[in-house]
Amino acid sequence: MTTPRTVLVTGGNRGIGRAIAEEFVAQGHRVAVTARSGSGPEGTLTVIADVTDAASVDAAFTEVEEKLGPVEVVVANAGITRDTLLLRMSEEDFTDVIDTNLTGSFRVVKRASKGMLKARFGRVILVSSVVGLLGSAGQINYSASKSGLIGIARSLTRELGGRGITANVVAPGFIETDMTAELPQEQQDAYKQQIPAGRFASPEEVAKVIAWLASDDAAYISGAVIPVDGGLGMGH
Ligand code: NAD
């Protein structure tokens, strides 16, 4: 049994974020999720927030702090894709993806660190992607944003590691969510052939690794990049 914590998961109304929130609830934590609309799973507090807006992120944290207490574990999960090949990629396609996935995570982590520094305890978990490690044709924007999260985790580890705060990255491969369901069936089959495990993962398989990183057992792990990809990137 791990110590019960106050947890905030961004983008927790569906997909991987929802599974993460469900796992933390199942393990007995106090859990809040942010959503732009809709609501998180049963047993969570849903707060409406857009990670592209610092004031909205700040208001979400304030509401969670008032209702559940200071945030001890933050999972920066909210993310988008806008795939297209380089010559067709507009500057807006690039900056919008960076603004949500990378700058959005920066806003969330910065706000979370305020309370964590006071408590001298914190667990920061950033949801990257195998694409941030390996690159991907048609995803220069997404890949850059997901690589950048590794820089955030490692710099945070150096800056705040002495204050009881850890920061780690989880890099999922192909996970069964709306994001991958949009891929044509032939493309899904082709990807499965490249994955040593021969299948996509369930969101729950990612959620369990994230919950473990937040647990008492992972207190000495920081600055790590943990792939959950069935061997696709072979631990790059
Ligand atoms: P999803 O599209 O189902 O969920 C994304 C979540 O992010 C949603 O809740 C959405 O509302 C939220 N979000 C998007 N923009 C936001 C904003 N501006 N403010 C607040 N919330 C916002 O996708 P998913 O597959 O569950 O992906 C979750 C994370 O996992 C993403 O960061 C994604 O890049 C990453 N990931 C997914 C896969 C995969 O195969 N599905 C693989 C690797 C990494």
UniProtKB/TrEMBL annotation:
**Alphabetical list of SUPFAM superfamilies matching this protein:** NAD(P)-binding Rossmann-fold domains (SSF51735)
Cited InterPro entries:
KR_dom (IPR057326), NAD(P)-bd_dom_sf (IPR036291), SDR (IPR050259), SDR_fam (IPR002347)
Matching CDD domains: BKR_SDR_c
The record places domain Ketoreductase at 5-178
Q: Coiled-coil regions in this chain?
A: none
List the SMART domains. Answer: PKS_KR
Q: Which family does it belong to?
A: Belongs to the short-chain dehydrogenases/reductases (SDR) family.
What is the protein's name according to its record? Beta-ketoacyl-ACP reductase
